[in-house]
Design a protein that fits this description.
With 436 residues, this protein is α/β, with parallel strands linked by helices. Helix content is 32%, strand content 26%.
Protein backbone atom coordinates (compact mmCIF):
# COMPACT_ATOMS: atom_id res chain seq x y z
CA UNK A 1 0.00 0.00 0.00
CA UNK A 2 1.16 3.53 -0.73
CA UNK A 3 2.79 5.61 1.99
CA UNK A 4 0.45 8.21 3.47
CA UNK A 5 2.28 11.33 4.61
CA UNK A 6 0.50 13.44 7.22
CA UNK A 7 0.94 17.17 7.63
CA UNK A 8 2.49 16.63 11.07
CA UNK A 9 5.11 14.21 9.79
CA UNK A 10 5.80 16.38 6.78
CA UNK A 11 6.30 19.44 9.00
CA UNK A 12 9.07 17.59 10.85
CA UNK A 13 10.68 16.66 7.52
CA UNK A 14 10.34 20.19 6.15
CA UNK A 15 12.20 21.68 9.12
CA UNK A 16 14.95 19.09 8.66
CA UNK A 17 15.20 19.92 4.95
CA UNK A 18 15.52 23.62 5.72
CA UNK A 19 18.28 22.79 8.23
CA UNK A 20 20.12 20.68 5.66
CA UNK A 21 19.98 23.42 3.06
CA UNK A 22 21.19 26.05 5.51
CA UNK A 23 24.03 23.80 6.71
CA UNK A 24 25.08 23.36 3.06
CA UNK A 25 25.45 27.12 2.74
CA UNK A 26 22.29 27.84 0.74
CA UNK A 27 20.70 31.22 1.28
CA UNK A 28 17.45 32.94 0.40
CA UNK A 29 16.96 33.00 -3.37
CA UNK A 30 19.35 30.15 -4.15
CA UNK A 31 18.06 27.46 -6.50
CA UNK A 32 17.85 23.70 -5.91
CA UNK A 33 17.33 21.53 -8.98
CA UNK A 34 15.21 18.45 -8.25
CA UNK A 35 15.69 15.73 -10.86
CA UNK A 36 14.35 12.62 -9.12
CA UNK A 37 11.19 10.54 -9.25
CA UNK A 38 8.07 11.72 -7.46
CA UNK A 39 7.35 10.73 -3.88
CA UNK A 40 5.71 12.09 -0.74
CA UNK A 41 9.20 13.05 0.50
CA UNK A 42 9.64 15.14 -2.65
CA UNK A 43 6.75 17.38 -1.55
CA UNK A 44 8.29 17.81 1.91
CA UNK A 45 11.57 18.85 0.30
CA UNK A 46 9.78 21.43 -1.87
CA UNK A 47 7.93 22.84 1.13
CA UNK A 48 11.03 22.84 3.34
CA UNK A 49 12.84 24.82 0.66
CA UNK A 50 10.09 27.30 -0.18
CA UNK A 51 9.27 27.95 3.49
CA UNK A 52 12.89 29.03 4.00
CA UNK A 53 13.17 31.10 0.82
CA UNK A 54 15.10 28.53 -1.21
CA UNK A 55 13.79 28.05 -4.77
CA UNK A 56 13.11 24.46 -5.86
CA UNK A 57 13.32 23.84 -9.60
CA UNK A 58 11.39 20.62 -10.38
CA UNK A 59 12.74 18.84 -13.45
CA UNK A 60 11.50 15.81 -15.33
CA UNK A 61 13.93 13.05 -14.25
CA UNK A 62 13.68 11.64 -17.78
CA UNK A 63 15.37 14.70 -19.28
CA UNK A 64 18.25 13.79 -21.53
CA UNK A 65 21.70 15.17 -20.76
CA UNK A 66 21.23 17.58 -23.68
CA UNK A 67 18.00 18.99 -22.18
CA UNK A 68 19.14 18.96 -18.57
CA UNK A 69 22.48 20.70 -19.12
CA UNK A 70 20.82 23.68 -20.80
CA UNK A 71 18.52 24.23 -17.82
CA UNK A 72 21.25 23.72 -15.23
CA UNK A 73 23.45 26.25 -17.02
CA UNK A 74 20.55 28.72 -17.03
CA UNK A 75 19.57 28.52 -13.35
CA UNK A 76 23.07 27.97 -11.87
CA UNK A 77 21.71 25.94 -8.93
CA UNK A 78 23.48 25.87 -5.60
CA UNK A 79 22.49 22.21 -5.31
CA UNK A 80 21.44 19.49 -7.75
CA UNK A 81 19.41 16.61 -6.32
CA UNK A 82 19.66 13.94 -9.00
CA UNK A 83 19.58 10.75 -6.94
CA UNK A 84 17.05 9.43 -4.45
CA UNK A 85 19.83 9.21 -1.86
CA UNK A 86 20.41 12.96 -2.10
CA UNK A 87 16.72 13.61 -1.53
CA UNK A 88 16.72 11.33 1.52
CA UNK A 89 19.83 13.02 2.91
CA UNK A 90 18.00 16.35 2.96
CA UNK A 91 15.47 14.86 5.40
CA UNK A 92 18.24 14.19 7.95
CA UNK A 93 19.29 17.74 8.78
CA UNK A 94 19.03 19.49 12.12
CA UNK A 95 15.63 21.20 12.08
CA UNK A 96 15.30 24.97 11.94
CA UNK A 97 12.27 27.23 12.18
CA UNK A 98 10.24 27.76 9.03
CA UNK A 99 8.05 30.57 7.75
CA UNK A 100 4.32 29.93 8.11
CA UNK A 101 3.79 29.99 4.34
CA UNK A 102 6.05 29.35 1.32
CA UNK A 103 8.10 32.45 0.50
CA UNK A 104 8.17 31.63 -3.21
CA UNK A 105 6.71 29.31 -5.81
CA UNK A 106 8.73 26.47 -7.29
CA UNK A 107 10.29 27.51 -10.59
CA UNK A 108 8.85 25.27 -13.29
CA UNK A 109 10.18 25.27 -16.85
CA UNK A 110 8.15 25.66 -20.00
CA UNK A 111 9.16 26.08 -23.64
CA UNK A 112 7.34 27.95 -26.38
CA UNK A 113 7.85 29.34 -29.85
CA UNK A 114 11.60 29.82 -29.42
CA UNK A 115 12.25 26.20 -28.49
CA UNK A 116 14.37 27.18 -25.49
CA UNK A 117 12.88 26.15 -22.11
CA UNK A 118 12.12 29.12 -19.87
CA UNK A 119 11.89 29.18 -16.08
CA UNK A 120 8.67 30.70 -14.73
CA UNK A 121 9.82 32.75 -11.75
CA UNK A 122 7.34 34.51 -9.46
CA UNK A 123 9.92 36.11 -7.21
CA UNK A 124 10.22 36.10 -3.44
CA UNK A 125 6.93 36.92 -1.75
CA UNK A 126 6.27 39.35 1.06
CA UNK A 127 4.69 37.74 4.15
CA UNK A 128 1.32 39.24 3.20
CA UNK A 129 1.51 37.97 -0.38
CA UNK A 130 2.67 34.54 0.76
CA UNK A 131 -0.37 34.27 3.02
CA UNK A 132 -2.68 35.49 0.25
CA UNK A 133 -1.34 32.91 -2.19
CA UNK A 134 -1.84 30.04 0.27
CA UNK A 135 -5.33 31.23 1.24
CA UNK A 136 -6.34 31.62 -2.41
CA UNK A 137 -5.56 27.97 -3.17
CA UNK A 138 -7.16 26.75 0.04
CA UNK A 139 -10.36 28.72 -0.45
CA UNK A 140 -10.78 27.76 -4.11
CA UNK A 141 -10.21 24.02 -3.68
CA UNK A 142 -11.42 23.64 -0.11
CA UNK A 143 -8.23 22.07 1.25
CA UNK A 144 -8.68 21.08 4.90
CA UNK A 145 -7.17 18.94 7.64
CA UNK A 146 -9.39 15.96 6.80
CA UNK A 147 -8.14 15.74 3.22
CA UNK A 148 -6.09 12.94 1.70
CA UNK A 149 -4.81 14.06 -1.70
CA UNK A 150 -3.89 11.25 -4.09
CA UNK A 151 -1.14 12.38 -6.49
CA UNK A 152 -1.49 10.48 -9.76
CA UNK A 153 0.35 12.85 -12.16
CA UNK A 154 4.12 13.39 -12.24
CA UNK A 155 4.96 15.46 -9.17
CA UNK A 156 7.39 17.69 -11.06
CA UNK A 157 4.43 19.20 -12.96
CA UNK A 158 2.99 22.35 -11.46
CA UNK A 159 -0.63 21.30 -10.88
CA UNK A 160 -0.16 18.00 -8.97
CA UNK A 161 2.61 19.56 -6.88
CA UNK A 162 0.42 22.56 -6.09
CA UNK A 163 -2.49 20.36 -4.96
CA UNK A 164 -0.19 18.28 -2.74
CA UNK A 165 1.44 21.34 -1.19
CA UNK A 166 -1.92 23.00 -0.57
CA UNK A 167 -3.25 19.89 1.15
CA UNK A 168 -0.27 19.60 3.52
CA UNK A 169 -0.33 23.33 4.31
CA UNK A 170 -4.01 22.96 5.27
CA UNK A 171 -3.19 20.11 7.67
CA UNK A 172 -4.20 17.24 5.39
CA UNK A 173 -2.32 14.19 4.13
CA UNK A 174 -1.01 13.02 0.76
CA UNK A 175 -0.16 9.76 -1.02
CA UNK A 176 1.86 9.65 -4.24
CA UNK A 177 1.65 7.04 -6.99
CA UNK A 178 5.26 6.30 -8.02
CA UNK A 179 4.12 6.16 -11.66
CA UNK A 180 0.72 6.24 -13.29
CA UNK A 181 -0.93 2.86 -13.63
CA UNK A 182 -4.68 2.56 -14.15
CA UNK A 183 -5.00 -0.60 -12.06
CA UNK A 184 -2.85 0.98 -9.35
CA UNK A 185 -5.02 4.09 -9.35
CA UNK A 186 -8.20 2.04 -8.96
CA UNK A 187 -6.59 0.06 -6.12
CA UNK A 188 -5.42 3.25 -4.38
CA UNK A 189 -8.88 4.78 -4.50
CA UNK A 190 -10.35 1.56 -3.11
CA UNK A 191 -7.78 1.11 -0.34
CA UNK A 192 -6.84 4.64 0.72
CA UNK A 193 -10.22 6.34 0.24
CA UNK A 194 -8.72 9.68 -0.85
CA UNK A 195 -10.72 12.89 -0.82
CA UNK A 196 -9.05 14.80 -3.65
CA UNK A 197 -7.20 14.08 -6.88
CA UNK A 198 -5.82 16.03 -9.84
CA UNK A 199 -5.49 14.27 -13.19
CA UNK A 200 -5.34 14.86 -16.93
CA UNK A 201 -8.01 13.49 -19.30
CA UNK A 202 -5.70 10.69 -20.48
CA UNK A 203 -5.58 9.36 -16.90
CA UNK A 204 -9.37 9.27 -16.72
CA UNK A 205 -9.57 7.56 -20.09
CA UNK A 206 -7.11 4.86 -19.02
CA UNK A 207 -8.89 4.38 -15.69
CA UNK A 208 -12.23 3.85 -17.43
CA UNK A 209 -10.60 1.44 -19.89
CA UNK A 210 -9.14 -0.53 -16.99
CA UNK A 211 -12.51 -0.76 -15.26
CA UNK A 212 -14.18 -1.92 -18.49
CA UNK A 213 -11.50 -4.47 -19.35
CA UNK A 214 -11.56 -5.96 -15.85
CA UNK A 215 -15.34 -5.82 -15.53
CA UNK A 216 -14.69 -3.83 -12.37
CA UNK A 217 -16.74 -1.30 -10.45
CA UNK A 218 -15.19 1.43 -8.32
CA UNK A 219 -16.53 3.03 -5.18
CA UNK A 220 -15.33 6.62 -5.56
CA UNK A 221 -17.61 8.08 -2.91
CA UNK A 222 -14.71 9.19 -0.72
CA UNK A 223 -13.63 11.79 -3.29
CA UNK A 224 -14.97 15.30 -2.76
CA UNK A 225 -12.79 16.84 -5.48
CA UNK A 226 -11.57 15.44 -8.82
CA UNK A 227 -9.93 18.20 -10.83
CA UNK A 228 -8.80 17.74 -14.41
CA UNK A 229 -6.82 20.02 -16.72
CA UNK A 230 -3.82 20.00 -19.01
CA UNK A 231 -5.64 19.08 -22.23
CA UNK A 232 -9.11 19.25 -23.80
CA UNK A 233 -11.30 16.55 -22.28
CA UNK A 234 -13.32 14.46 -24.79
CA UNK A 235 -17.00 14.73 -23.98
CA UNK A 236 -17.55 10.95 -23.44
CA UNK A 237 -14.68 10.91 -20.92
CA UNK A 238 -16.01 14.03 -19.22
CA UNK A 239 -19.55 12.70 -18.90
CA UNK A 240 -18.35 9.36 -17.58
CA UNK A 241 -16.30 11.20 -14.97
CA UNK A 242 -19.44 13.04 -13.96
CA UNK A 243 -21.26 9.71 -13.61
CA UNK A 244 -18.53 7.95 -11.63
CA UNK A 245 -17.44 10.76 -9.32
CA UNK A 246 -20.54 12.98 -9.34
CA UNK A 247 -21.08 16.38 -10.95
CA UNK A 248 -20.66 18.02 -7.54
CA UNK A 249 -17.17 16.49 -7.30
CA UNK A 250 -15.61 17.08 -10.75
CA UNK A 251 -13.93 20.37 -11.63
CA UNK A 252 -11.98 21.53 -14.65
CA UNK A 253 -9.58 24.43 -14.81
CA UNK A 254 -7.78 26.22 -17.60
CA UNK A 255 -4.30 27.60 -17.25
CA UNK A 256 -0.63 27.01 -17.89
CA UNK A 257 2.67 26.76 -16.08
CA UNK A 258 2.67 30.57 -16.03
CA UNK A 259 -0.63 30.87 -14.18
CA UNK A 260 -4.24 29.81 -13.80
CA UNK A 261 -7.03 31.55 -15.69
CA UNK A 262 -10.30 29.83 -14.73
CA UNK A 263 -11.99 27.18 -12.60
CA UNK A 264 -15.15 25.36 -13.64
CA UNK A 265 -17.34 23.02 -11.57
CA UNK A 266 -18.98 20.29 -13.62
CA UNK A 267 -22.40 21.72 -12.83
CA UNK A 268 -21.36 24.89 -14.68
CA UNK A 269 -20.19 22.90 -17.70
CA UNK A 270 -23.43 20.90 -17.79
CA UNK A 271 -25.41 24.15 -17.85
CA UNK A 272 -23.05 25.77 -20.39
CA UNK A 273 -21.30 23.05 -22.42
CA UNK A 274 -17.93 24.04 -23.77
CA UNK A 275 -17.03 26.57 -21.10
CA UNK A 276 -13.82 26.28 -19.10
CA UNK A 277 -15.43 28.33 -16.36
CA UNK A 278 -15.18 31.80 -14.93
CA UNK A 279 -12.02 33.63 -13.99
CA UNK A 280 -10.50 32.49 -10.73
CA UNK A 281 -11.07 34.84 -7.78
CA UNK A 282 -8.92 37.95 -8.06
CA UNK A 283 -8.46 37.55 -11.83
CA UNK A 284 -10.06 39.08 -14.90
CA UNK A 285 -9.96 37.31 -18.28
CA UNK A 286 -10.41 39.37 -21.43
CA UNK A 287 -9.66 39.05 -25.15
CA UNK A 288 -7.87 41.34 -27.58
CA UNK A 289 -9.11 42.13 -31.12
CA UNK A 290 -7.40 38.98 -32.41
CA UNK A 291 -9.26 36.78 -29.93
CA UNK A 292 -6.21 36.13 -27.77
CA UNK A 293 -6.97 35.51 -24.09
CA UNK A 294 -5.35 37.72 -21.44
CA UNK A 295 -5.52 37.24 -17.68
CA UNK A 296 -5.04 40.05 -15.15
CA UNK A 297 -3.75 38.61 -11.88
CA UNK A 298 -3.04 39.81 -8.34
CA UNK A 299 0.49 40.84 -7.49
CA UNK A 300 1.40 37.52 -5.87
CA UNK A 301 0.51 35.64 -9.07
CA UNK A 302 2.79 37.59 -11.42
CA UNK A 303 5.92 36.17 -12.99
CA UNK A 304 8.89 36.74 -15.24
CA UNK A 305 10.76 34.32 -17.43
CA UNK A 306 14.10 33.59 -15.79
CA UNK A 307 16.94 35.43 -17.55
CA UNK A 308 14.63 36.33 -20.44
CA UNK A 309 13.39 39.93 -20.08
CA UNK A 310 12.42 40.28 -23.76
CA UNK A 311 10.28 37.16 -23.65
CA UNK A 312 8.71 38.41 -20.44
CA UNK A 313 7.75 41.72 -22.06
CA UNK A 314 6.17 39.87 -24.99
CA UNK A 315 3.55 38.16 -22.79
CA UNK A 316 2.55 41.05 -20.49
CA UNK A 317 0.54 44.18 -21.11
CA UNK A 318 -1.22 46.79 -18.98
CA UNK A 319 -5.02 46.67 -18.89
CA UNK A 320 -7.69 48.59 -16.94
CA UNK A 321 -7.79 45.58 -14.61
CA UNK A 322 -4.04 45.66 -14.02
CA UNK A 323 -1.08 43.82 -15.57
CA UNK A 324 -2.28 40.85 -17.65
CA UNK A 325 -0.44 37.99 -19.34
CA UNK A 326 -1.19 35.65 -22.23
CA UNK A 327 0.05 32.25 -23.34
CA UNK A 328 -1.25 32.73 -26.86
CA UNK A 329 -4.49 30.76 -26.70
CA UNK A 330 -7.55 32.01 -28.57
CA UNK A 331 -11.02 32.20 -27.06
CA UNK A 332 -13.94 34.36 -26.04
CA UNK A 333 -15.67 35.55 -22.88
CA UNK A 334 -19.48 35.39 -22.77
CA UNK A 335 -21.44 36.43 -19.68
CA UNK A 336 -18.27 36.05 -17.65
CA UNK A 337 -17.62 32.50 -18.86
CA UNK A 338 -14.48 31.68 -20.81
CA UNK A 339 -14.54 29.48 -23.91
CA UNK A 340 -11.44 28.19 -25.66
CA UNK A 341 -11.68 28.40 -29.45
CA UNK A 342 -8.26 26.96 -30.16
CA UNK A 343 -5.03 26.24 -28.45
CA UNK A 344 -2.01 27.95 -29.90
CA UNK A 345 -0.74 26.40 -33.12
CA UNK A 346 2.76 26.01 -31.68
CA UNK A 347 1.63 23.72 -28.85
CA UNK A 348 0.97 19.97 -28.87
CA UNK A 349 -0.66 18.45 -25.79
CA UNK A 350 0.10 14.74 -25.57
CA UNK A 351 -1.19 12.93 -22.50
CA UNK A 352 -1.35 16.24 -20.65
CA UNK A 353 2.30 17.05 -21.44
CA UNK A 354 2.98 20.29 -23.31
CA UNK A 355 5.25 19.71 -26.30
CA UNK A 356 6.44 22.71 -28.29
CA UNK A 357 7.35 22.01 -31.93
CA UNK A 358 10.14 24.61 -31.84
CA UNK A 359 11.92 22.75 -29.04
CA UNK A 360 11.74 19.43 -30.91
CA UNK A 361 12.85 21.07 -34.16
CA UNK A 362 15.80 22.74 -32.42
CA UNK A 363 16.93 19.39 -31.03
CA UNK A 364 16.90 17.75 -34.48
CA UNK A 365 18.37 20.65 -36.46
CA UNK A 366 21.89 20.08 -37.68
CA UNK A 367 21.43 16.36 -38.28
CA UNK A 368 23.57 15.56 -41.36
CA UNK A 369 21.41 15.27 -44.46
CA UNK A 370 18.44 17.12 -42.93
CA UNK A 371 17.39 20.06 -45.14
CA UNK A 372 14.07 21.15 -43.60
CA UNK A 373 11.86 19.99 -40.72
CA UNK A 374 8.49 20.78 -39.18
CA UNK A 375 6.95 19.21 -36.09
CA UNK A 376 3.20 19.19 -35.57
CA UNK A 377 0.41 17.38 -33.73
CA UNK A 378 -2.21 14.93 -34.95
CA UNK A 379 -5.28 13.69 -33.08
CA UNK A 380 -4.73 10.51 -31.08
CA UNK A 381 -7.50 8.54 -29.38
CA UNK A 382 -5.38 7.58 -26.37
CA UNK A 383 -3.18 10.64 -25.81
CA UNK A 384 -5.28 13.44 -27.29
CA UNK A 385 -2.49 14.34 -29.69
CA UNK A 386 0.72 12.66 -30.86
CA UNK A 387 3.91 14.34 -31.97
CA UNK A 388 4.70 14.00 -35.71
CA UNK A 389 7.48 15.26 -37.95
CA UNK A 390 7.69 16.05 -41.65
CA UNK A 391 11.15 16.50 -43.11
CA UNK A 392 13.07 17.19 -46.29
CA UNK A 393 16.45 15.67 -47.08
CA UNK A 394 18.24 12.38 -47.62
CA UNK A 395 18.69 11.62 -43.91
CA UNK A 396 17.28 8.25 -42.85
CA UNK A 397 14.32 8.20 -40.49
CA UNK A 398 16.20 5.99 -37.99
CA UNK A 399 18.95 8.59 -37.74
CA UNK A 400 16.37 11.20 -36.76
CA UNK A 401 14.87 8.79 -34.26
CA UNK A 402 18.30 8.16 -32.72
CA UNK A 403 18.99 11.88 -32.36
CA UNK A 404 15.57 12.41 -30.76
CA UNK A 405 16.23 9.57 -28.31
CA UNK A 406 19.52 11.19 -27.24
CA UNK A 407 18.22 14.71 -26.93
CA UNK A 408 14.53 14.57 -25.99
CA UNK A 409 12.39 13.01 -23.28
CA UNK A 410 9.93 10.37 -24.54
CA UNK A 411 6.81 12.61 -24.76
CA UNK A 412 8.67 15.03 -27.05
CA UNK A 413 9.98 12.44 -29.52
CA UNK A 414 8.05 12.30 -32.80
CA UNK A 415 6.04 9.09 -33.09
CA UNK A 416 5.77 9.29 -36.87
CA UNK A 417 8.07 10.74 -39.53
CA UNK A 418 7.17 11.60 -43.11
CA UNK A 419 9.65 12.56 -45.83
CA UNK A 420 8.34 15.24 -48.22
CA UNK A 421 9.81 16.94 -51.29
CA UNK A 422 9.18 20.29 -49.55
CA UNK A 423 7.25 21.73 -46.61
CA UNK A 424 4.12 23.83 -47.13
CA UNK A 425 4.96 27.44 -46.32
CA UNK A 426 3.30 30.83 -46.51
CA UNK A 427 4.64 33.60 -48.76
CA UNK A 428 6.63 34.87 -45.80
CA UNK A 429 8.19 31.46 -45.16
CA UNK A 430 6.12 30.33 -42.17
CA UNK A 431 5.32 26.59 -42.08
CA UNK A 432 1.59 25.88 -42.49
CA UNK A 433 1.36 23.28 -39.72
CA UNK A 434 -2.38 22.91 -40.13
CA UNK A 435 -1.81 21.52 -43.62
CA UNK A 436 0.62 18.97 -42.26
Amino acid sequence: MLQVLTAADSAVDQAAVAGSLAASGLRVGDRVALSVAGSADYVSVVLGATRSGIVPVPLDPRLTEYEREAIIADIEPALVVDRDEKLTDLLRGDPIELDRWPRCRPMHFTSGTTGRPKGVWSGLLTPAHAASLAREERDLWGFHAGDLDLVVSPIYHSAPLRFAMGTLLAGGSIAVLPAFDAAGLAAAIDQLRPTSMFCVPAHLQRLFGQLDDAGQTLDASSLRLVAHAGAPCPEPVRRRAHELFGTDTVWEFYGSTEGQFTACPATEWVAHPGTVGRARPGRVVTTDPDGQLWCAVPEWARFVYWNAPAKTRDVWRNTPDGPAFTVGDLGRVEDGRVYLDSRREDLIISGGVNVYPAEVEAALEGTPGLVDLAVFGRDDERWGQRVCAAYVGDVEEQVLRDVAARRLTPPKRPKTYQRLPSLPRTATGKVRRTEL
